[in-house]
Amino acid sequence: MNEVLRFAGVRKAFGSTEVLQAVSLSVKANERVALIGPSGSGKSTLLRMAAGLEFPDSGSVETLGTPVGEGRSVRDIRRNLLQVRAGLGVVFQSYNLFPHMTVLANLIEAPVHVQKVPREQAVERAHDLLERVGLSAKVDSRPAELSGGQQQRAALARALMTRPQLLLLDEVTSALDPQLVDGVLEVIVSIAEEENVAMLVVTHELGFARRIADTVHFLSEGNVVESGPPAQVIDAPLLQRTREFVGL
Ligand SMILES: Nc1ncnc2c1ncn2[C@@H]1O[C@H](COP(=O)(O)OP(=O)(O)OP(=O)(O)O)[C@@H](O)[C@H]1O
């Protein structure tokens, strides 16, 4: 499959607020795409749609070849979502770890109980991932015993447990103290280098977007107004609106 995510002519309004106005963009297998833009421009809404957490008013969203917002019934939609879920890793701004479970239990919960991966296999993968995100010493800790940066690295490891084809990352560092941000971003960069996983990343960290993205889309008022490699969109944008946003 060449495209792992496709938005075609997606419109979305919340009440009288038009949040997305005919957005079309796609993410190819192994491609890394960053969404940048001012607060309220619709970035998170797009990401939530890719995960099936919001539905478009019109247009279509296809995640891993499955239309996530379409279907004749709620049952169809749920079935479609379950189909894509194993291929999808999602990390949001808040860590969303299960607070009563150890780090290891958090990682193996869905693979073992939902995807029915043998427990030993899941534990092995969890140990491998925790080592890669620098959390080997925290396997048996509970989330409350970890710093925000460590929790976010655990959430990243958890999202990778099923070897997803597509990772959705929504402002994963914006709730962190500044000194913890770089550690988390480094982990994401190394994952991008080591795993065959496409990424759609919403970030306000332009340096990070520059390092990680093959393609950057600049959103403004619900439209993708400029797209291209970081060397263009971040370092030499064509549009005045983009130039102002990146501080040129
Ligand atoms: N569930 C909702 N109900 C009502 N309005 C919403 C909802 N979700 C988002 N919005 C509104 O939609 C607009 C776009 O929000 P979105 O979170 O997608 O923007 P964003 O570009 O991600 O912003 P930020 O960078 O601040 O996270 C905002 O005006 C927001 O208030």
From TrEMBL:
Its main location: membrane. GO terms for cellular component: plasma membrane. SUPFAM superfamilies: P-loop containing nucleoside triphosphate hydrolases (SSF52540). InterPro entries: AAA+_ATPase, ABC_ATPase_HisP-typ, ABC_transporter-like_ATP-bd, ABC_transporter-like_CS, MetN_ABC_transporter-like, P-loop_NTPase. Residues 5-246 form the ABC transporter domain. GO terms for molecular function: ABC-type amino acid transporter activity; ATP binding; ATP hydrolysis activity. It is found in: Cell membrane. Keywords: Amino-acid transport, ATP-binding, Cell membrane, Membrane, Nucleotide-binding, Transport. It is a peripheral membrane protein. Belongs to the ABC transporter superfamily. This is Amino acid ABC transporter ATP-binding protein. It comes from Leucobacter chromiisoli.
